[in-house]
Amino acid sequence: MRVALVDTSSVVLKGVSGFLADAGCVVVPFKDSDAAFEAIAADRAIETLLTSFEFPGTSGLQLCAKARELAKAENRSLYILMMSSDTGRHKLLDALENGADGFISKPPNPQELEARLNAAKRLKSDHRYLVHLATVDQLSETYNRQAFLELGEKICNKASAKEPIAVIMLDIDHFKQINDTYGHSTGDRVIKCVGNLIKQLPGIAGRLGGEEFGIVFSADKRQVMQLAEELRIKIMRDSTVSDSGEMLSVTVSVGVALSCRTETIIAMLKRADSALYRAKFTGRNCVKLF
Q1: Which of 67, 151, 214, 227 is the most buried (most CB within 10 A)?
Q2: Whether residue 153 sits in one domain with residue 33
Q3: Domains in the chain: how many in total?
């Protein structure tokens, strides 16, 4: 666990850092709360903030509130523990009201601090599981539609002439026929197989609904067309076994769109969908560029 430790006292930093290191933590010490916040914002690997109240400039309470807002905005797990030599009830209430997960006396009792760290680990594990449930399609193990759109929009916002963005949309050919002929469990295996293959591409991949998938990443025309064709061939060559033991060769129709500057992910998907429709109209099992 990576811990940002913030206190104005060198003695406190040294003592608490030693205990945290013995507990297996990687400690990033700070005497300045503003520097600590900048580090937390830049380093998502920091999972715990342990801070005192008293600082010149930005107070410990302000740091706590800013760090909590940052974690909320980034959907990030950050355990915040405040410490003070003043153990009055008002300190605990101030800490909790400003977004802290807990309060501990200073200098911390080693056993209590260890218990707090174990609580932080449990909360991180629970948060990771909840994020997974909220963002990942459980069948294909790719992002669900909402998460794909949100992450895709962030990628599109970074598009530039030097680093264009590409969107691939693909649709499994004759998927209804697969379900009707071989059963839905076979159809589920086909979805899983395709999801596993598209996750190997760069960027982010998501299941947009039914048998339709999307991928968004930085690529120029030559790169995206090559990757799309390689993906189509891989899917066709990767056999799926039906419930009856029959080997199925699945094909996909693929549409590709390249970004215009300041274009949204929705606009790109619409153009990729038009290319996908043309791929299906011209015989399926092919790649078309908008």
Answers
A1: 214
A2: no
A3: 2
**Structural domain of residue 76, as residue ranges?**
2-135
Query: Starting at the edge strand that comes first in sequence, how are the strands of the sheet with 79-84 ordered?
Result: 26-30, 2-6, 46-52, 79-84, 102-105
Angle at 285 between CA 283 and CA 288, to 5 degrees: 80
One domain, residues 168 and 128? no
In sequence order, the 6+-apart residues with CB closer than 8 A to the CB of 55 are: 6, 8, 32, 33, 63
For residues 155 and 131, membership in a common domain is answered with: no
pLDDT tens per residue across all 290 residues of the chain: 899 999 999 999 999 999 899 888 999 999 999 999 999 999 999 999 999 987 777 789 999 999 999 998 888 889 999 999 888 888 889 999 999 999 998 888 888 888 888 888 888 888 788 888 899 999 999 999 999 999 999 888 876 656 789 999 999 999 999 999 999 999 999 999 999 999 999 899 999 999 999 999 988 899 999 999 999 999 999 878 777 788 888 999 999 999 866 789 999 999 999 999 999 999 999 999 99
Q: Are residues 18 and 47 both part of a single domain?
A: yes
Dihedral of CA atoms 256, 288, 271, 236 in degrees, nearest 10, equals -60
Among the candidates 103, 135, 167, a domain finishes at: 135
| Last residue within a domain, chosen from 135, 162, 192 | 135
d(CA 288, CA 283): 11
CATH at 192? 3.30.70.270
